[in-house]
Amino acid sequence: MKIAWSFLVILVLAASPVAADITAVIVDLDGEISISRDGEFLDEWDIDYGTELESYDIIHTGPDGYLELSIESPVSSQLSMKVLENTTLFLEHAVQSGKAETSATLHRGAVQTRAAALIQGNNFNIKTETSVMGIRGTTFTVTQSPDTSILVSCREGEVSCTTSDRNSNIMPGKIYETNPSGQFRVQPLPVDKIDLYTEKWQQARLDALKINGALALEQYASLYNQALPRFQDAWTALEVQQKTFDKWEKIMKEGKSVSMGDAVQDKTAVSKGIIALRASLPMMKHSYFILYDLLKIMEESSWKGLSDNTLNTVAHYKRTQQEYFEKIARVQYYFKIYLEMDRQSSPFPEDEGGSLLDDFLMNSGF
Predict the structure, then answer these.
(1) CATH code of residue 137
(2) Domain span at residue 339?
(3) 53-57, 94-98, 295-299: which has the minimum mean pLDDT?
(4) What angle do CA 252, 256, 260 make, to 5 degrees?
């Protein structure tokens, strides 16, 4: 496999015994794919058919990248996901109050999902910044363009799409679209026209960005300038606690437990940085990856009149692109360990009420 800079899939599987029933295995792959685990890239020969993904792995798909996962989850007896080229996807799983929820947050690109009927009381959702798609035994595709518009098409079953607390049910013969402002529409489209329509829809969004890209670049450069200091401050606060994280990494690898008092003490020591990171990460990731898209488009266009602030931000972004990509990847390592601290510091049995951090992660907007 080729190890290449591209976009990412952040896969969050169960890190605690209560949710250990979920696994994801690579059953098909092609093109540029790389996997980062705890902030470090796997050797290319470790990425192949049958590779099992671990909690908080990050998968990168390039311009010709493709990956199919078979997911064993309490949510459904049959669940598979195809991650298409140039995609950014965050997949997570939590068990709360005895009910399982598997959720994928799509930041950019496209994902195709097939699921058998859901087990009663459990949920599987695809989330974007503006909408949530919940399935009920479905084969469907969600595509998100660089401007955050989305297109949902359904080939089998039914998808419940929610935007701004307004719900629409999509079945074969209909598609669901949103624009960057979160406005949505439902319109008819025969199933055999989905592929052609999707191709034209993606091209139209790209053409619009080329025309209005300079304005978008100014906007997201400003957003990145706001997000970066907050993210860096939170990162620095956790870096000084690295010995604590190293200690817990060893505890987890050896499958050991510590006293509740020790777990509470260590969790308290890192909580401030974790909370700050949780607050700063959504804007950081959003602006970071959209800038990556926009700069690629900028190279193909002739945008003029950019402000000095934007040009300076672009120059800094290019210099530090790999550094901050690695930091965003390593954030998942910090969350993985914090989840175990939370589990061992809880006075409640693992099958009662679920994990506090499960709720923390599932509703964080990552």
Answers:
(1) 2.60.120.1440
(2) 212-362
(3) 94-98
(4) 100
